[in-house]
């Protein structure tokens, strides 16, 4: 076992004063003091306690402070995903959160409730599908980045050399960021990994999709839009397609991310709140920082913007185009494509026109190609950065088509396909390809919006269907509910987990707890009146008297009017009924972005 590989099979002992983590087959033990929080790796002699239940754990995710004190987070269950570059990749399937302080007697009753809410937040984030990790392979980097690393850097710990943009437990691992503990620090990514053995034309190969979600400006669909002052954008995701044919490895990378301007879409109970630019912000500087980061990490950029050129989205399209034109960066090209207008009446075949417009640059960007003998044949020196309004549904459709084109070219280069040959639309691999990209869409969407993606019927089948439209309708309604009534809690959970908000000593006792917010009178009154008025209206209509008379009709009219007036009032004051984040309220978040 190399000095940087992470322990994967451990015994976990808990005593009143200490945690003991013992790697099986090793002569050492990690001891964590529950009072001082000091962690040390010691040669195993007789430190292990006797008569204490032994728990099995397969990773340490770190520690996080809540009201009752610090809590240790460990991996208890994992699912094998597959092999990448001869290394095993796993998916998080179970975890445990153990308090350093074994009792809550030092807390008030109110603090106990608040501590429970914080615990629920951590659990919700870790229950998000899906987290991935490896004990021997750096899942945060692309093949090209890994290949470019110097040999001495490759000997550092996985957490130390990981791309911090994609390490979701980076904040929790700071408690253990010391060289002697590095073999216990297990970095995880949030995203999607699919590892598949495939066959085309009688040639066996491995086909992999690895999607990594950024921790910067992380959040939920309507509470996290646009860019911040450092150039980080919401819903930023890197997706890598890897092909391994008899040891030859080819990698193709794409990115997606929110429109890199200061903009918002304030939830207010309307089905589609209009997006708007935030006034008084320097879009040019922030966008320039974002593009500089993109150029450093990936090379030249083609910005594929899929939002509408009319209606509510038009203000963002014009501002984005103007900003890129003003920056006039020769390594950045802006490609605007009105997805909905071009593909109206379910004419998704017209997307091939867009792919044709991008083909020249895709050929120029190339792919990372490492021959089986270790010789580097080519590198990818540019990426397509695709966005729509959410960077979910339309974005995934286009990314899958670019990936398909890259895949076919790579398979031709590797001798799997003959020159000019396409993958058979009726082949098993074609269905595998479409299914995996649709699964990728669903997970990326669930992580950001709370529901599966829209338009996945096209990704799965190559055409839009009526059943797909019905499924999109169901997902849209679910998004509406979650984005308005659930996402405040989910945004708070992400902010707490990533360390954007940290719990203070004495919170809920000597310091106010941000979880305690008094709602206005409308919040409690309007829904009760609406519910009562609707019940009365429903009862008067469904259970009428034997004959309708003027009095009864006036009764129906009155309660119907009450339903209408109260409903209109709720919509008018919609922002007061939305589940807003409490840990970092929008005013605070706006100041952080400025």
Task: Report what the structure shows.
- Keywords: Membrane, Transmembrane, Transmembrane helix.
- The chain is α+β, with helices and mostly antiparallel strands and 594 residues long.
- It folds into 3 domains: 1-189, no CATH class; 219-498; 521-593.
- Helices cover 36% and strands 22% of the residues.
- The chain contains 16 helices and 20 strands.
- It has helices at 109-126, 143-148, 158-161, 170-173, 283-298, 314-327, 339-342, 351-365, 393-413, 428-449, 456-461, 466-485, 487-498, 521-542, 550-572, 586-593, and strands at residues 10-14, 18-23, 28-33, 39-43, 55-57, 60-66, 69-84, 87-99, 131-133, 189-200, 203-213, 237-245, 248-256, 263-264, 276-277, 300-305, 332-336, 368-370, 376-378, 382-387.
- Strands 6, 7, 8, 9, 10, 11, 12, 13, 16, 17, 18, 19 and 20 form a 13-stranded mixed sheet that branches. The chain has a 5-stranded antiparallel sheet with strand order 4-3-2-1-5, with no helix packed on it.
- A hairpin with a 2-residue loop joins strand 10 (189-200) and strand 11.
